[in-house]
Structure formats: C-alpha cells, structure tokens
Design a protein that fits this description.
- This is Methylenetetrahydrofolate reductase (NADPH).
- InterPro entries: FAD-linked_oxidoreductase-like.
- GO terms for molecular function: oxidoreductase activity.
- By secondary structure, the protein is of the alpha/beta class.
- It has twelve helices and eight strands.
- α5 links the parallel β4 (113-117) and β5.
Length: 302
C-alpha cells in the first residue's frame, strides 16, 4: 500500500530482442581483407574504411622486402586491426630466417595469426617447398590462429591433373596438425566467381571428413578486364565462365563487377544448410582497398 491505497500491479517487462541478422549480414560478419604493403601505404588511415578488429592479411609477394611487410603489420596493429601476414614457404630460405621473421613480427607488431602457403613461385629459394613443412618446423606452435590455402577449382601446381585428390590429402594432414596442436585453423580459398563450384567443394570436404571451417575468397568490386586478368593469372577454373559470359554482354562490359550474386547464393545456402563449412568471407581487393571496404560496409548496413 502507498498512501493508504493499493498500488496497481506492475506489468512484467518484456525483454527487448534484436532481430536476427539477414543471411548476407551473418555471412559477412567476420569478413577479412587482404592488402599488399604498397597498396596499404596509399591509404592514409584504414580506420576510415574498416571496422576495428578486422582481420587484415598482408600479402607477401615475391620481391617484397621484409621491412615493408613488418612496417605494414606494425601499422595495422597500431590502427586497431588484426594483422595476419602471409608466410610463403618457397620464399623463406631456412628455419633461421623463418624464426627471425616471426620474432620480428611478434616483437614489433604482436602478430598472433598467420596464413601459411606454398607461395606462387616454381623454384623454392631455400629448404621449404610447402606449408606443411612450415607447420612441422615448430615455429608456429605458440600462434593463436593459423590459416591454410584451399583451392575449390584445383591447383595445378599441387596436382597437375587439376584434380582434388592430392589437395584433399594435404588438407587432411593440416587438419591432423590442428587437432594435435590445438591451434584453431581455417581454410581460406582462392577467389571464385560462381557459387555452385564452391558450395559443391565445401560439401565434398565435409563428406570426406574435413571439418576445418572455410573462409571463402571473393574478388571485391573491380572492372571486368581487371578480374579477367587476375583470374587467368591465378588459374581460376570453372567459375571463370561467369566473367567470360559477362564479357560478351556489351551493356555490362564497363560496369564494375561485384560479388553480390555469388555471396547471395552462398548466404542462402548457409541459411538452409547450417552445417556448411563456409564460415566467413575473405576479400581480395583487386579493384582497390577503398572500393572493397566501401562495398562491404554498404552490404553490412543492408
């Protein structure tokens, strides 16, 4: 009673719930992006384009000085991002050089994550030829996360026939390492332009017994001619037909190509197949970092 009268019963408060994200927003929530030191240097402040904490891969291309790689990762850490430098096995001379690089990354940029791959050169500069050799070196045993390369449309450098048998065997070996070491691992794929081959590939991985999550590589918005050049150079296979078909349409030839249709199809598939290995998206900004970052931000806003 208050002032001699009974108070009215208080209605229970219904907790506010946020609406579930759309399939596209859910797919893009943990998106990462790749930069090269020289392209990053052209961006005055990456914080104006990407959300804090975004994982940013730093591509190590043949001929890139290690000092440039180190400066890029140091800057990314200072600006609040999670740097993930590439470690191309065939560009690393020996274990001493590998450990020296890791020591510098850890000491100057607190690097805790890495992408391990063979590297895009035919002849190794030293004792390493593939990413499994890097894993077995012991140099990455205290890393918080490791990513390895995946090739939904084959990789003739690993399997000249273009098949998946040897690629699958390599993934099983890496999965065994992840399970034994306890280090979280994911597969990041080469960029593709058509959803069906990627969805089928990820489904087949699970059928075969691979459980590593897949981070799907996609090309950010770019001119069609640019994408065709990169696709041919990188050996993108079946999904290249999507670009070739578009190139035959004069009305679309000059318009920027975006991954909207590809990601919409993958997002819909994930929504209806929650057991899909496809966990996140990784952007290759072939048309520029700014174009990819702005497109990604627009998609997240819906």
């Amino acid at each position: 009673m208050i002032n001699g009268s009974f108070s009215s019963p208080v209605a229970p408060v219904t907790p506010m719930t946020s609406p579930a994200p759309s399939p596209m927003a859910a797919l893009l929530s943990g998106a990462s992006i790749e930069v090269m030191p020289r392209t990053l240097a052209a961006i005055p402040d990456l914080r104006a384009l990407l959300a804090p904490g975004t994982r940013v891969y730093v591509a190590n291309i043949e001929g890139t000085p290690f000092s440039d790689m180190l400066a890029a990762t140091r800057r990314l850490r200072a600006e609040g991002f999670e740097p993930m430098p590439h470690f191309p096995a065939r560009l690393i001379a020996d274990r001493a050089a590998l450990r020296a690089q890791i020591s510098a990354y850890r000491g100057e940029a607190d690097v805790r994550e890495a992408l391990l791959l063979a590297g895009g050169v035919k002849k190794p500069v030293g004792q390493f030829d593939n990413s499994m050799q890097l894993l077995n070196s012991g140099a990455f045993d205290d890393f918080a996360r490791l990513h390895v390369a995946g090739h939904p449309e084959g990789n003739r450098d690993i399997d000249p026939s273009g098949g998946q048998k040897r690629l699958l065997e390599a993934l099983f070996t890496k999965q065994d390492f992840a399970q034994q070491s306890g280090i979280p691992m994911a597969i990041v794929t080469q960029f593709a332009f058509e959803a069906a081959p990627v969805i089928d590939w990820a489904r087949n991985l699970r059928t075969e017994g691979i459980t590593l999550p897949v981070h799907l590589g996609v090309a950010g918005p770019a001119k069609l001619q640019t994408l065709l050049k990169f696709a041919i150079a990188c050996g993108v296979g079946a999904s290249l037909r999507t670009l070739q078909k578009r190139a035959r349409d004069v009305t679309k030839l000059m318009a920027p190509f975006t991954p909207a249709d590809l990601l919409a199809a993958v997002a819909a598939h994930r929504a209806s197949h929650p057991d899909s290995l496809i966990e996140a998206v990784h952007f290759f900004p072939l048309g520029g970092i700014k174009a990819s970052a702005e497109w990604l931000a627009a998609q997240k806003k819906g």
